[in-house]
Design brief:
The protein has about 350 residues and is α/β, with parallel strands linked by helices. It has helices at about 10-20, 40-45, 100-105, 115-120, 120-130, 135-150, 230-235, 240-245, 285-290, 310-315, 315-325, and strands at about 55-65, 65-70, 75-80, 110, 130-135, 155-160, 190, 200-205, 255-260, 265-270, 300-305, 330-335. Residues about 1-20 and about 25-35 have low confidence and may be disordered.
Length: about 350
């Protein structure tokens, strides 16, 4: 059963509830002998003792839309940007550094789309750890190009394919409300070619956030208090970080929503939430796909983006619409903070 309109005014409480849900008390600790292994030690540091218990799902927010997760001991990364502020000099976030994520050796990276705030460090992580990169064809194309630019080994790509076996593709939906029929249709569902044993993954082709000033969506962000430039002044850009910033502002190539199922627990992750206004082309298809996510069982947690390009125009109307259609028990907000100082 879908439970709609549950989230207005409750996001802070939902975040606290999600933390308690995902890291239950009384988890088994990792044995002392295994702690001598650097990978195990880093995973324990980031995900807590008991992360490798078969019945545990653990997630840790890293930055923007990037999370480190363990599904029964299979450690994966959701998106791959590891920075608090996108132009700063150091490749680290308050929660974890890029070196920490590399030391944790994720098995797979489930990539949302090709933008600097989602995919800044994918090629570095895959080259250093051997993690496989999951996404549509544009994700693989960009990571391969980025690795070549940096003199790194090319990533091993795992394609997300539709029901006909075609790799997901897409255009920049934040720039264009319509998509030519040669690309993956809005709302299409797909599956990765492979993944950790026992982890069921469903992927939806959704839209990126965008500024669409529809008459029914003009609300604005009532909570905006102005920019915070302190991360950039405290950790100013370097020549290399400026090059990285420029090279990773790439075409979007489609925007993906991932649903993970592990032993009855369902986690949904998406970094953006495109318009669900009745005037938006493709809205009906995306809306129907979101509703179908909970057909067999109500999702436990949705991790959804809340503050991006359209935030200044319609506040968080689209994000609320996504959450209401998905109907998860708990909503966890992401993509807020200082990624977009203006």
């Amino acid at each position: 059963m879908h439970m709609r309109s549950r989230l207005k005014g409750r996001w802070a409480l939902a975040a606290l509830t999600a933390a308690a849900t995902l890291v239950p008390a009384g988890s088994a600790a990792v044995s002392a002998e295994n702690q001598s292994d650097p990978t195990t030690a880093m995973r324990t540091k980031l995900l807590g003792p008991g992360w490798n218990s078969p019945d545990q799902v653990r997630i840790k927010w890293v930055s923007v839309t990037t999370w480190l997760a363990s599904f029964g001991g299979h450690v994966v990364l959701l998106d791959s940007t590891v920075m608090d502020s996108l132009s700063e000099g150091a490749n680290k976030a308050t929660a974890a550094s890029l070196d920490d994520i590399i030391a944790a050796k994720p098995e797979y990276i489930y990539q949302n789309h090709v933008h600097l705030d989602q995919m800044r460090h994918a090629s570095r992580i895959t080259a250093a750890t051997g993690a496989k990169l999951v996404g549509g064809q544009p994700v693989c194309d960009f990571a391969t190009h980025d690795a070549a630019m940096k003199g790194l080994a090319a990533p091993t790509c795992v394609m997300v394919r539709d029901s006909a076996g075609k790799p997901f593709t897409g255009i920049d939906s934040y720039g264009s409300p319509v998509q030519p029929p040669i690309y993956t249709p809005w709302g299409a569902a797909g599956k990765p070619d492979e993944g950790p044993p026992g982890l069921d993954v469903t992927v939806l082709n959704i839209k990126h956030t965008q500024v669409r000033p529809y008459p029914g969506s003009l609300e604005g962000d009532k909570g905006y208090t102005g920019p915070d430039l302190s991360p950039d002044t405290e950790n100013p850009p370097t020549p290399q970080s400026a090059v990285d910033f420029a090279s990773t502002q790439y075409y979007e190539g489609g925007n993906l929503l991932y649903m993970f199922r592990w032993k009855g627990f369902t986690l949904i992750h998406h970094g953006s939430a495109g318009s669900l206004d009745p005037l938006e082309p493709g809205m009906a298809e995306v809306k129907a796909a979101l509703r179908h996510l909970g057909d067999s069982k109500q999702p436990d947690v949705e991790i959804g983006g809340i503050a991006e390009l359209q935030n200044y125009v319609n506040g968080m109307i689209d994000e609320r619409r996504y959450a209401e259609e998905i109907g998860a028990k708990v909503f966890f907000p992401q993509h807020h903070g200082n990624w977009n100082p203006p």
